[in-house]
Amino acid sequence: MKKKETSEIALPQKRITLASTVSVEMEERKSIFIGHATPVSCEEEARAFIEAKKKEYHDARHNVYAYLLSENSIARYSDDGEPQGTAGMPVLNVLKMSGATDLCVVVTRYFGGILLGAGGLVRAYSASAKLAIDEAGFASFEDYAVYKLGVSYSDYQKLTVALGKINAEEDRCDFGEGVTVIAAIEKHRMEEIPRTVSELTYGKGNAELLGFEERASRIG
Questions:
Q1: CA 183 – CA 163 distance, rounded (Å)
Q2: Buried/exposed code over 144-153 (b: 16+ C-beta within 10 A; e: otherwise)
Q3: pLDDT, tens digit, for every residue of 123-136?
Q4: What is the SS3 assignment for 144?
Q5: Which residues, at least 6 apart from 121, have a Cβ–Cβ distance to it below 8 Å?
Q6: What is the end-to-end Cα distance of the chain in Å, rounded?
Q7: Cross-strand pairs, 143
Q8: Mean pLDDT of 5-32
Q9: Residue 13 confidence (pLDDT)
C-alpha cells in the first residue's frame, strides 16, 4: 500500500514580551514600592538588569525580582529578605499571568515603618509588578523573511501596491538601471513575495531571499 503523503503548514511563531523599560512607583501604608520592568533576551540580560537596580537602589530595604525566559523555560525569583513566598513568587505569578515572556521585573521597597503582614506583602508586590508591566505595554514579535527584489521602473509602482495588498513591509528602495527593493513578510507567508514579483513582472523580476529576522508585528 502506498504511504499517504501529507504536507505540514508552518504556523507563525510569535513571541510576546514588553514593549519598553519602565519604573512605576506606588505607596502602600507608608512603604514605597517601585516596580521596574524590562524586556530581556537572555538570562545574562535579566541578571544585569537586576544588579543595576540593586546598585541604583542600594539604600532600599528590599529589591525583589522575578524573570521569565522562553529559552529553556527559565523562571527565577528572589524574596530578597522578605518572608518566604510573600514577594518573589507573587511577582513571578504576575509575569506568568501576563501571557508575555522574556521579561524581568524588580520591585524595590522602601520600608515605611508599618508591617504589612504576609497577605499585605503579597498584594503590594503583585500590584507593583502588574502596574509596571501594564505601563511597559506589550510587543508581539515574529520571524520575518527579508527579500531583495529587482524590477523595472515601469513595474515599481505596481509592485509597491502589490506588496501593500499582501501586508509586506517595504524597507527601502534604490534606483539604478532598475529598481532594487528590500521588503519583508511574515516567515510563514514567505512564498507570497516571490510569487507576487513573478506574476507582476511576468517572470522578468527577481526575488532573492536575504535571510530571516525577528520584527515587531503588533504593539499594544
A1: 8
A2: bbbbebbbee
A3: 999 999 999 999 99
A4: strand
A5: 82, 83, 86, 87, 90
A6: 52
A7: 214
A8: 77
A9: 62
